[in-house]
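USER: Study each token:
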Amino acid sequence: MSRNYEGKVVLITGASSGIGAVAARMFAERGAQVVAVARRAPLLERVIAECRAHSPSSFYLSGDVGEQEFAERIVQTTIDRLGRLDVLVNNAAISKHKHIYHTRAEEAESVLRINFLSSVWTTFAAIPVMLRQGWGAIVNVSSFAAKLTPPRESLYAASKAAMSAFSEGLWHDLAGSNIHVALVHPGPIDTEIWLKEDEPPSYQGKKYPPEIVVNAIFDCIERRRYEVTVPRRNPMLMTARFLRLVLPGLLRWGMQRSDPVPRAVIERARERAAAGKRLGEVDEP
């Protein structure tokens, strides 16, 4: 596919800020008709106003892709209004960064619904459309955490790992269909997700601009790449991958040293367990 997206229709979830908002603008600048999806309508309005400067037919849909009916409806609404769907970018996600002792089991459902199941629902709705067209591209924005789980990221990493495994399965199932599925694994990207963590993150290193993720999305579509990690050739990410494969014990030691579990957190968890409380019941008397 060329770098000119004139006449193409691109549906992007999680488009009110961060990677999704930048993707919407950059696709519109290349001529695409953009459908931006997220929960925060006021932010979507601003994103689409910028898109319409380049692509007047772009529009937004506000709602929760963690609800199956809405996730499927955004695909159908795109077809009803624009007649086709060329690129689906599954980018919507929520963070979940806190100790397992502070996490309720019920929190897993909301994380999985938004970070993983939403991509399943939109993909299942999009595939018949792309089959009729004879072509399509689906790009799933996963996370480097799906490859290497940091401390306090068990649920978030699990949701992204599920998305990654789903995508890898589609590589095989859709072979010969001319529907290309790609995975992008961002490392530390400078978005507002860092401000929404349940507990303060320990990471203090460099954060990269969302544009590098969007450029990876373009690369996946245009060069039919299946999997890209960004930033590429980052020493920290490359070292972590190497240690995970060759010296996993050393990697665990290093991660636990970088973000240790305070002894007080463990002792308070023991006290709550002795009192018969479930994990995550930290506020009850």
Q: What stands out?
A: The radius of gyration is 20 Å. The mean pLDDT is 92. Residues 9-232 form a domain with the Rossmann fold fold (CATH 3.40.50.720).
